[in-house]
Amino acid sequence: MPHEVDEGNDSDADLAAIDLKGPQPRCEGPKLRPFQNRKAAIRFIKRLDDPAIEGESHVFEVVIARKRYALKIFNLYPGDSIPESDLEIAGLDTLYAHRDPFYNECRAYGRLDESHMNGKIAVRAYGYTTIPATEVHRLGKDFQVNSWEEDAEEHEYNELPLERGLFRAIVKDLIRDDVRWTHKIVKRMKRDLLRMREQGIYPMDIQSRNYKGGLLLDFGSAMTSPHYRLDTCSDRLYEKVMDHDLYEFDQMIGKAGVKTWVIAYNKEYMKRLRPRSHNRVKYSK
Question: In this structure, what DSSP letter does residue 34 have?
Fold first, then answer.
């Protein structure tokens, strides 16, 4: 049976507090807006992600206010995954805001909103919301989810979700029918990827499983400028970041066996992108 969640008991004051400490990353740069119908009941229909792959989130088909969406619910981010060397570069606020997969998606979609490309070059996101931990536990039983991470290191970014038992989520378009990758589709996918990068969004995880309907739907690993890694790394590492998505795109298309001359990585094009004047930015610790 479909699983229903009623989120109509939060006061406006509580939601304002959540905006400050929970879903919104406390850093400079773009931010995703809240989902318009956050207080509406959520009816869970089925699980959409692959049960064999345990990642940083799980995706469900849901009904909210009579409309069907894909709801991506994120695990809490474990603080011990931050490299000690990065603590010498930036403070915890910045590191959490630039590394947590939920924040990565919020910042990428915030930039897509700013550039009016949300839903045009990537699967549309309608905003963030929160799910009570009690309901997440029930989802785990009903849909066989065994990897909810509730032992994330306690930091003030996680303080509110831990105290009130809230999990963070993003509401996206539900794309039912996939498309067969043809030369035309691949050409558009490449164009979309290049347009993202022109907006300062580097997905960093270009895999066939992260596309639906020819559109990218996963930004959990994305770097969106301004980003401490892009702003402080060496020229050599910067070049690797510039190359990464395009190499992965070409490998993905090659593995898919698509007959096309489309190639994302172009040496001369990359040379034009590499010069930068914003290197060596200092972040407060």
Answer: B
**Mean pLDDT value of segment 250-274:** 77
Strand, helix or coil at 277?
coil
The residue type of 159 is: E
Query: Which residues contact residue 67 at a Cβ distance below 8 angstroms, ignoring those fewer than 6 apart?
Result: none
Does residue 6 carry a pLDDT above 70?
no
**String of b and e for 168-187 (b: at least 16 CB within 10 Å)?**
bbbbbbbbeeeeebeeebbe
Burial track 123-154 (b if 16+ CB lie within 10 A, e otherwise): bbbbbbbbbbbebbeebeeeeebeebeeebee
pLDDT for residue 12: 34
Measure CA of the first residue to CA of the last residue in the chain; give whole Å.
49
Which residues have C-beta within 8 Å of that of residue 105, sequence separation ≥ 6? 32, 72, 125, 170, 218, 219, 220, 222
Residue 284 pLDDT class (50, 70, 90 cuts): low
What does the DSSP 8-state code read for residue 89? T
- The pTM of the full predicted model, rounded to 2 decimals, is 0.84
Question: Do the beta carbons of residue 79 and residue 86 sit within 8 Å?
Answer: no
